[in-house]
Description:
Blueprint: H1 11-17, H2 24-57, E1 63-69, E2 80-82, E3 87-91, E4 93-100, E5 105-121, E6 127-132, E7 139-145, E8 150-157, E9 163-167, E10 172-177, E11 182-187, E12 192-198, E13 203-208, E14 213-218, E15 223-228, E16 233-239, E17 246-252, E18 257-262, E19 266-271, E20 277-282, E21 287-293, E22 298-303, E23 307-315, E24 318-326, E25 333-337, E26 342-347, E27 350-355, E28 364-369, E29 375-380
Antiparallel strand pairs: 1-29, 2-3, 3-4, 4-5, 5-6, 6-7, 7-8, 9-10, 10-11, 11-12, 13-14, 14-15, 15-16, 17-18, 18-19, 19-20, 21-22, 22-23, 23-24, 25-26, 26-29, 27-28
Amino acid sequence: MCSRTGDRHNPVFGAFSQGKQFGVMDLRANLLKIFFPIVFSAITGQLFLHSGSAVAETRAGFHIQEQWNLGGKEGWGPLLFDSPSHLLYVPRTDRVMVLDTESGKVTGEITGFIDAREMVLDDAGKYGFVTDITDGTVGFVRVFDRSTLKLVSTVHVGRIPGVIVFDPATKNVFAFSSRDRNASVIDTTTNLVVETIPLPGKPHIAVTDGKGTIFVGLRGIGQMARIDTASRRLTGTWSMAPCAEFKGLTFDAVNRQLLGSCADGKLIAVNANSGQAITLGESAIGDGDLVFDSQSGLLISAANNGVLTIFHQESASQYTRQEEVSTLPRAGTLALDPGKSRVYLITAKFQQRQVVGPGMEEAESRLTPVPDSIVVLVVGP
């Protein structure tokens, strides 16, 4: 950069002060060399500013960065990423695998499950809670120590407890039974159920606002239930029309909005205070999990058709479809790493399996994972 006071470092002033040493043609040539870039810059300054702005606003494209092979023949449940420890938890039916996301290596396993599904972690770094639907006749929440990866308690809850939420306001865990249509409230200091909250439908998806309210999507009836975690009571239900059922649900804390992808292909936003729903646009085809990254303003939707759709938040009521990323078929389960604006997905190769059960006249064909083909995909910019 040139000094603003010294003549020797000012090319324009220096040219005039030394003009007597040049011929006329030399002077003109030097003036052109000096003034042409300045005039050109003045004329095109807006263009440079626009181009620079465009470059600054351009977002790097998402792509598959890594692929980690997990092996095994079991299925999987919802993924859970823990930012402080950089660990990714992967329920695998009879166990939960723990991966170090810095290396992609499995660091341990939590065993003792019959059919592990969804899990949450407390905010003290001590315990994890995993729903175990067993054979459907009884439901449990298994509690494990995060330092030893050993089960320390089993809590009896309602049947088919597929959904679970940790509430930071009360430090309680809420386990939702789709068969008994209720929520079991677990006191995490004693690991005992202290309340059971009846629900007007089958809970299948839920999120917390972190401030004492849990929102629960009810299957197939186009309604959402609202629970006050302090009083442990249902405080109301909202119609989610035009959304008949959520496929994915996440929360935008800044705008206090629930963001949901619907079975009918709609992407909606629900005001967490009033319950008013607005349509944002079309969601991804074959929706799976949905996450919102508040740091980047990105709403990310996974789909079983092997496409990851990235929406960018322009305002609380406007999202633009930023890009679509090809992943792998049936990669509809994801977890967000907000610190790196990347996501983890899990999938496998599938094959047909013939199943014959009681009362079946013919064998039923079902898709099942090919053994040792289960992989985690790391997708980011």
